[in-house]
Amino acid sequence: MKFYNREKEVKYLKTYCQLEPNSILFVYGPKSSGKSTVMRKVIKELENSDIIFFYYNLREHATPTKEEFLSIFFEKGDKKYIKNNLIIDIKVCKFGVEEEWDINNIKLNDVFRKIKEDINTVIKDGKKPVLIIDELQKLKNIYFNGNNKEGKSLLNELFNLFVHLTKVRHLCHVICLTSDTLFIEEIYQSSTLENASKYYLIDWLSKEDIKKILKEEGFSKDEIDYCINYLSLPYEISDLIENKKLGLSVEETIRQWINLESDRLKYIIDTSNVEEEKIYNILNKFRDKITLDYKKEINKEEIKYIKFLINNEILFYDVVNGIIKPTSIKKWYAIRELI
Ligand SMILES: Nc1ncnc2c1ncn2[C@@H]1O[C@H](COP(=O)(O)OP(=O)(O)OP(=O)(O)O)[C@@H](O)[C@H]1O
Ligand SMILES: [Mg+2]
User: Fold this and answer.
1) Which atom of ligand 1 is found nearest the CA of 179?
2) Residue that finishes a domain, picked among 138, 168, 201
3) What one-character-per-residue DSSP string does 192-232 give?
4) Tens of pLDDT along 256-294?
5) Residue 54 shares a structural domain with residue 88
6) Ligand 1 mean position to 34 CA, how many Å?
7) What whole-number distance in Å separates Cα of residue 129 and Cα of residue 107?
8) Which one of 166, 234, 237, 333 counts the least CB within 10 Å of its CB?
9) What sign does the dihedral 159-165-166-168 (CA atoms) show?
10) CA-CA distance, 40 to 36, in Å (whole number)?
């Protein structure tokens, strides 16, 4: 697979990994903007540096239980950090634990002690540990020391550990990626993470970058002029190239995208329990513009409907910049077709 552009983002994250750890970094952005791909690229480019990456992609797992969380994060063996052989394209590690570890009877404190020990070993070996968790929100419903709400929420406790590792002790970077922007909103408001977290947006590709890529890929000026208004995400470019090889014009591909998106949107609205009229009132706000100012253009009664559209990946809420927009430009056209 080709990797397009994203020089600025790769540079930012590479530099970030090499600075002294001081806060937790949350990487967020619209669905499919390329967050995971950029992160992998960064790991790849730093493969031969003094950094040891502990990388966990929870996207690959169904909603994990406590036991699954432990088996995802830890590997039994005689080393403190062990190469993860299941990930083949990048060099990343898992935390090591002794063979005797009894996954069914472990306390959260022991889990955290293990993580700290392993991180300290990396540092003692003269290397820099960086912990990356993709789709962290998947750990939301795991509780230790008692079932459900009586126990300790793993995620809350992890945040305390992350603050300790970064802001307090400066031992290890912690980078969390998520495609769930309502989760980012929760975090943004949380007091544990106040002054202890940073946010980095991986957004749509810029028009100039898309133009450059299309030119390099051999698209004509007319084709570029036509499709430039519809494109925003990297995979759309790959799709356009593939379809061209298969004999579809850019007009046909884009027509298909918009039809598909507007059908999907209509289906979501038709099959939900949310009041249709209220949803359309929100969508109507996008008739003449692509972004809304959260503070000025959304009132309290509308939030429920906005959240519905965000949960269904139709809208993207950028909590840091206070704006709401469709998840892609083609989605914007689909919305306008429907209203
Ligand atoms: N810079 C890029 N060049 C080429 N293809 C890319 C690039 N970035 C992303 N892609 C492609 O776009 C698709 C989505 O990318 P990726 O999964 O990294 O996005 P994401 O932001 O992590 O998505 P999600 O919000 O679902 O987590 C993938 O098929 C990926 O190969
Ligand atoms: Mg991702």
Assistant:
1) 25
2) 201
3) TTTTTEEEEE--PPPHHHHHHHHHHTT--HHHHHHHTTT--
4) 999 999 999 999 999 999 999 999 999 999 999 999 999
5) yes
6) 3
7) 24
8) 333
9) positive
10) 6
How far CA 262 is from CA of 33, 204, 242, 280, in Å, comes to 20, 20, 22, 13
pLDDT digits (tens, 9 = 90+) for 165-183: 999 999 999 999 998 989 9
* Residue 45 shares a structural domain with residue 141: yes
Q: Are residues 236 and 144 in the same domain?
A: no
Cα separation, 63 vs 196, in Å, equals 27
Say which amino acid occupies 228: I
- Choose one of 32, 133, 312 to mutate for the ligand 1 pocket test, by most ligand atoms within 8 angstroms of C-beta: 32
CA distance 61 to 283: 33
pLDDT tens, position by position, 7-43? 999 999 999 999 999 999 999 999 999 999 999 999 9
Last residue of a domain, one of 167, 201, 235: 201
Asked if residue 197 and residue 269 are part of one domain, the reply reads no
Contact partners, residue 208, CB within 8 Å, separation at least 6:
none
* Packed helices 7-18 and 35-45: angle between N→C axes, nearest 10 degrees: 60
In the structure, which protein residues have their CB atom closer than 6 angstroms to any atom of ligand 1? 1-6, 29, 31-37, 179, 234-235, 238
Cα angle 47, 233, 89 (rounded to 5 degrees) comes to 25
- Measured in Å, residue 33 CA sits from the centre of ligand 1 at 6
**Separation of CA 157 and ligand 2 centre (Å):** 23
* 136 CA distance to ligand 2 middle (Å): 10
For residue 331, the one-letter residue type is K
